[in-house]
């Protein structure tokens, strides 16, 4: 073996050792992450953490930034103003937090169902929010993902009650701050569909319900802000194939919360036979739900009397937004081809919010429906709010 060959082999060996060493340093947190030090002080006030455990299924990208995750049970407020336990998931980046703590982004999920088993925290994809959460943690934000009441913990889920879900969002932020102890009170939020209404309501409720937090702005995509129009459409037989099952879930959830609501006042005999399947989100019944939805016909889901119509309308109106001036700016993204939430309903909610003095940038996207709204502007918009850049608005005063 020549001297040159020997030196070449030595160089290769050194390079291999270096690569292995670097790889070990990089991959160590992936395979051997530090256990998070979670704080569980207990209590009954809104946002109090009553249970927390390590989130056991962090993605590789989260592990690479040494993120920490926790499954959290915390206190919030039910529609009657009483304390209730709510579950959720929280994340913080690894490393040293900035001065004042990690800024936090709340993620409010869309419709996953109305049963306890429907909680995003019980699904591998966090109700479709895992990729967004992963991106935010990688960008240096703490993340709070509430399940909402009745999802993940005992209780009735008040479906489409945006104010109650908004309080769940605010208390999830409080819980995230408590359980990790390195999270700032400065928060922003993103939500779509049901979550769009929840994050909008959290923005409105923040100043009065959570004065300890500092809202900077929220993005509401295809928000379920005001869906009172479902009643008139049901009576006219013009509900879309997406709206009929949404109204069914609302009626079922309302009947669970209000024993005086009679389900048969809002359904045909055919709908009654399909009812349990339409209400499901797990097990064999959930697999049959698409067929049950396809079997619905105009008039199957609608009030059967004037009294039932009034009751349904009043309840939906009590849930509708806006209710008060928002605490921070909003970006509202929605499509003009949405078959779940009529675009006119969203336009009107934005108009009324602008009249209250809100700072809103509203973008109605041509040809976009409910689930394909372009949200690429959301993260840059949120980043600008944390940077203190004045929020744009296209409200007409």
Automatic annotation (TrEMBL):
<protein>
    <submittedName>
        <fullName>Secretory lipase</fullName>
    </submittedName>
</protein>
<keyword id="KW-1133">Transmembrane helix</keyword>
<dbReference type="InterPro" id="IPR005152">
    <property type="entry name" value="Lipase_secreted"/>
</dbReference>
<feature type="transmembrane region" description="Helical">
    <location>
        <begin position="7"/>
        <end position="31"/>
    </location>
</feature>
<keyword id="KW-0472">Membrane</keyword>
<dbReference type="Pfam" id="PF03583">
    <property type="entry name" value="LIP"/>
</dbReference>
<dbReference type="InterPro" id="IPR029058">
    <property type="entry name" value="AB_hydrolase_fold"/>
</dbReference>
<keyword id="KW-0812">Transmembrane</keyword>
């Amino acid at each position: 073996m020549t001297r040159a060959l020997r030196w070449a082999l030595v160089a290769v060996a050194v390079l291999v050792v270096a690569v292995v060493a670097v790889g070990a340093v990089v991959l160590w947190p992936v395979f051997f992450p530090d256990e998070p030090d979670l704080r569980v002080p207990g209590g009954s006030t809104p946002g109090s953490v009553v249970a927390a455990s390590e989130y056991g299924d962090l993605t590789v990208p989260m592990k690479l930034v040494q993120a920490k995750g926790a499954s959290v049970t915390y206190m919030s407020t039910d529609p009657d103003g009483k304390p209730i336990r709510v579950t959720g998931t929280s994340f913080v980046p690894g490393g040293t937090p900035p001065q004042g703590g990690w800024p936090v982004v709340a993620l409010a999920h869309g419709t996953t169902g109305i049963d306890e088993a429907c909680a995003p925290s019980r699904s591998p994809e966090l109700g479709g929010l895992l990729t967004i959460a992963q991106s935010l943690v990688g960008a240096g934000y703490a993340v709070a993902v509430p399940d909402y009441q009745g999802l993940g913990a005992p209780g009735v889920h008040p479906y489409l009650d945006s104010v109650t879900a908004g309080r769940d969002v605010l208390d999830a932020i409080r819980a995230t701050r408590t359980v990790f102890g390195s999270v700032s009170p400065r928060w922003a939020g993103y939500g779509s569909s049901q979550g769009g209404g929840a994050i909008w309501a959290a923005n409105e409720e923040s100043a009065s319900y959570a004065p300890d937090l500092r809202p900077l702005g929220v993005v509401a995509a295809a928000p379920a802000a005001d869906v009172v129009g479902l009643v008139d459409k049901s009576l006219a037989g013009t509900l879309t194939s997406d709206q009929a099952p949404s109204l069914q879930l609302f009626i079922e959830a309302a009947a669970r919360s209000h024993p005086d609501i009679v389900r048969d006042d809002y359904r045909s005999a055919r709908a009654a036979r399909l009812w349990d399947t339409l209400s499901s989100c797990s097990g064999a019944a959930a697999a049959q739900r698409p067929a049950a939805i396809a079997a619905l016909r105009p008039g199957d889901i609608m009030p059967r009397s004037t009294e039932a119509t009034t009751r349904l309308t009043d309840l939906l109106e009590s849930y509708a937004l806006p209710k008060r001036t928002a605490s921070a700016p909003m970006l509202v993204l929605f499509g003009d081809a949405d078959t779940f939430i009529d675009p006119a309903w969203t336009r009107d909610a934005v108009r009324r919010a602008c009249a209250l003095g809100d700072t809103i940038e509203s973008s109605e996207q041509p040809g976009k429906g409910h689930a394909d709204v372009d949200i690429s502007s959301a993260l840059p918009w949120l980043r600008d709010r944390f940077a203190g850049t004045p929020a744009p608005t296209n409200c007409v005063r």
